[in-house]
Amino acid sequence: MERIDVELGQRSYPIIIQAGLLDSGAQWLSEINTKRLLVVTNEVVAPLYLERCVAMLASTGKTVDTLVLPDGEAHKTLTTLDGIFSRALELGLSRDCALVALGGGVIGDMVGFAAACYQRGVPFIQIPTTLLAQVDSSVGGKTAVNHPLGKNMIGAFHQPSLVLMDINTLATLPAREFAAGMAEVIKYGILWDADFFAWLESHRDDLLAQQPEALNYAIRRCCEIKAEVVAQDETEQGVRALLNLGHTFGHAIEAEQGYGNWLHGEAVATGMVQAAELAQQLDWLDAEAVDRIRALLQAFELPVSAPEGMGFDQFIPHMRRDKKVLDGRLRLILPRTLGRAEVVSDVTEAQLQQLLDPS
Ligand SMILES: NC(=O)c1ccc[n+]([C@@H]2O[C@H](COP(=O)([O-])OP(=O)(O)OC[C@H]3O[C@@H](n4cnc5c(N)ncnc54)[C@H](O)[C@@H]3O)[C@@H](O)[C@H]2O)c1
Ligand SMILES: O=C(O)C(=O)C[C@@H](O)[C@H](O)[C@H](O)COP(=O)(O)O
Ligand SMILES: [Zn+2]
């Protein structure tokens, strides 16, 4: 069992990583001061894990209700959120309830946002079941839904009270979703920890085979980094923006292609290569480092170039709406070297055009 604490004063919480936790996690609920839980999941995860999750939660003596949502990024909307509120109200849940997110990042982001809003805020618990959710989205309290004009545009910072990760749930994850999670894993190596990046390169085959020790280490290291960054800067006033490496380009791809057509991790993989290429253009990063980033992502069969037909004119309207824009200026996260990223606010549109419309 691994325990990592996200240190945020009164909003601190533990991340517990353990195989089998879906059945054995009840002890961690003792500090959640509520008698009623609403578990929200989706139609793919429900048949796999809902019954076991409910049995584990109910063994604490709490009353457990459920809600099963449609699956997919296209449903990460205000309309779906309204369904969560309706279910909670129909059940008569008051402020002393807690919501439980059982699923990937889409469920986690929506349930977290519902918890931030329902009766002006109730606690929530993350039980992430995708690699992406375990290494990234279940930690740190960014919650949101999408808007047709932009990713995660409507949301709130609302920290979970507990994160329970059962790595056994990854056994049922489709290969494409596993790869998408690896994009965010590789992100931490590029932006924060060069040794971790090198470890990922040298354990590539173990990770591709989903060898448990390698997977466990990768998940733990990502959670440690995310916990450290979030503890320093909960609401992205500074260092937390680095976790957005590749996302200005990536979110543009997701929105432009239609939510769900490119997976978040796939779009971020391409966005990180674009950020690395831009850093090379600025003489920050040498060609060898860019090649290493590209090669590691490609080893997991992640895309490393923009979708067909998507150039400067398609990227730029989305990029101008990015949440990091300040005073009308784009702020991009670029790798300075492998293992260190920085916020840059003086990239010109001409430089972006050179990157996005090559030839
Ligand atoms: N809040 C954050 O800090 C943060 C960080 C990164 C990403 N995100 C968000 O997370 C979302 C992406 O999350 P995701 O990649 O987990 O996608 P997802 O939630 O759509 O899950 C991927 C697919 O796997 C299915 N699934 C989930 N668990 C499974 C399991 N154990 N076995 C089989 N199938 C399973 C899901 O139903 C879905 O079809 C995006 O909306 C992204 O914006 C948020
Ligand atoms: O936790 C963060 O901070 C991140 O930026 C993590 C990202 O991987 C994640 O996709 C996040 O949801 C993006 O945030 P946004 O503010 O750009 O919507
Ligand atoms: Zn992300």
Automatic annotation (TrEMBL):
Q: Which domain of life is it from?
A: Bacteria
Please give the catalytic activity noted in the UniProt record. Answer: 7-phospho-2-dehydro-3-deoxy-D-arabino-heptonate = 3-dehydroquinate + phosphate
Pathway it acts in? Metabolic intermediate biosynthesis; chorismate biosynthesis; chorismate from D-erythrose 4-phosphate and phosphoenolpyruvate: step 2/7
3-dehydroquinate synthase N-terminal domain location is 67-179
Question: Which InterPro entries does the annotation name?
Answer: Dehydroquinate_synthase, DHQ_synth_AroB, DHQ_synth_fam, DHQS/DOIS_N, DHQS_C
EC category name: lyase
Task: Give UniProt keywords alphabetically.
Answer: Amino-acid biosynthesis, Aromatic amino acid biosynthesis, Cobalt, Cytoplasm, Lyase, Metal-binding, NAD, Nucleotide-binding, Zinc
Q: Where in or outside the cell? A: Cytoplasm
User: Domain 3-dehydroquinate synthase C-terminal, which positions?
Assistant: 181-325
Q: What is its main location?
A: cytoplasm
**Cofactor requirements of the protein:** NAD(+); Co(2+); Zn(2+)
Q: Which GO terms describe its biological process?
A: amino acid biosynthetic process; aromatic amino acid family biosynthetic process; chorismate biosynthetic process
Q: What GO molecular function annotation could you give as one example from this UniProt entry?
A: 3-dehydroquinate synthase activity
CC terms in the record's Gene Ontology section: cytoplasm
Q: Where does Zn(2+) bind?
A: E184, H247, H264
> Which positions are tagged coiled coil?
none
Q: How is the cofactor bound?
A: Binds 1 divalent metal cation per subunit. Can use either Co(2+) or Zn(2+).
Where does the chain bind NAD(+)? 71-76, 105-109, 129-130, 142, 151, 169-172
What job does this protein perform? Catalyzes the conversion of 3-deoxy-D-arabino-heptulosonate 7-phosphate (DAHP) to dehydroquinate (DHQ).
The similarity annotation says:
Belongs to the sugar phosphate cyclases superfamily. Dehydroquinate synthase family.
Q: What is this protein called?
A: 3-dehydroquinate synthase
Q: Which organism is it from?
A: Ferrimonas marina
Instruction: Tell me what gene encodes this.
Output: aroB
